[in-house]
Amino acid sequence: MEGINLNQIGVSFKGSGSYVPNQILTNQEISKKVETSDEWIKSRTGISQRRISGLSENVSEMGYKAALGAIEMARWDIETIDLIILATSTPNDLFGSAPEIQSKLGAINAVAFDLTAACSGFLFATITATQFLKAGSYKRAVVIGSDQLSSYIDWNDRRSCILFGDGAGAIAIEVTNELDNLIGFSMRTDGQRGSFLNLPSQNNQDLIIDDINFSSGGFSSIKMNGQEVYKFAVREVPLIIENLFKKTNFNSENINWLLLHQANQRILDSVGDRLNVSSEKILSNLSNYGNTSAATIPLMLDEAIRNKKIKENDIIATSGFGAGLSWGAALIRWG
Ligand code: COA
């Protein structure tokens, strides 16, 4: 770790990328499948349309494209990447999809693994990566959020099928001995409330031979108690951000952006109100993509960076929340 004072080691954010599938499913089109309407969906969620992966697309393909964008923005030589973490709940290989992304990228010197924490996954994976960097173990990390929830939606359940979509986003993070751009973070889970939102396994019992049972693997579809998840989000997210502000001596006035997991516009507005963050600081693109789980935060981040909304040194308060239940927040300086 030549030239780096291990006591003052920090991280800087060098690039972002994203990818969404081409297929668009509008609210009007969903209303041909279940009894709902564009007006109902828009007024309750803020969502107008979402992207659905095509037959040749999957989590590692989308994640690869997003990662490539982040690496190109960072101008890194691919072989200098040490660590790749893929946040996903819908891997195309249950043994892990991150090594497939490593292979597609040709990142031969990286170690790659998956991390599952549903809609908090990207935040948890980003924090995890920064800890490897700050410990001095690795110098360059790519963190990806990629999810294909369309495969696990019950398309006959109007309470949940309207919310979700597919996509991927990624960031490139590097070690630095200058200012630490991860100002602070906090992560929480509460498994006791896990049944409010889950995607449980669905096993069929069978016999291998007489007297030896086994359960064949498989999953059901997303189960959600929308009202409880809503109440959880509007209570816990402001609290965890407020506590982070206190811990870091920041407040809603000296942040540039509030970047929340894109679940529902009403949740974004309510959290913004509770924190006294003015509406022009609240980033939102869920009208176009719906809730893409681990992908929403980097998808929004990349859009805001590429259209020059977020600039170098901007302070971003970000929060992921969802199944687990899990939630977390981080305060970062972009760049
Ligand atoms: N179209 C039309 N009507 C619908 C509908 C739809 N897509 N979904 C539900 N309804 C109906 C219900 O059947 C119910 O009718 P009833 O009173 O006759 O039984 C009525 O609308 C109210 O249902 P409810 O579930 O109370 O709606 P809601 O106001 O809580 O809104 C959500 C539903 C899902 C939009 C809202 O609860 C939500 O956004 N929760 C958070 C979900 C979330 O973000 N999950 C991911 C977190 S990571």
For this entry, give a set of tags.
335 residues; alpha+beta; Peroxisomal Thiolase, Chain A, domain 1; 2 domains; five-stranded mixed sheet; four-stranded mixed sheet; globular; disordered N terminus; binds coenzyme A
Gross morphology is globular
Low-confidence stretches: 1-5
CATH fold node name of the largest domain: Peroxisomal Thiolase, Chain A, domain 1
Q: What is the tally of beta strands?
A: 15
Largest sheet: 5 strands, mixed
Percentage of residues in strands: 25-35%
What ligand molecules are bound, each kind once? coenzyme A
Write the element-wise H/E pattern from the N-terminal end onward: EEHHEHEHEHEHEEEEEEHEHHHEE
Contiguous helical run count:
10
CATH architecture of the largest domain: 3-Layer(aba) Sandwich
Distance between the ends: 21 Å
Q: Considering DSSP H and I runs of 4 or more, what fraction of the residues is helical?
A: 25-40%
What assembly state would you assign to the polypeptide chains in this entry? single chain
* Spatial ordering of strands, largest sheet: 1-7-6-4-5
The CATH superfamily of the largest domain is: Thiolase/Chalcone synthase
* CATH secondary-structure class of the largest domain: Alpha Beta
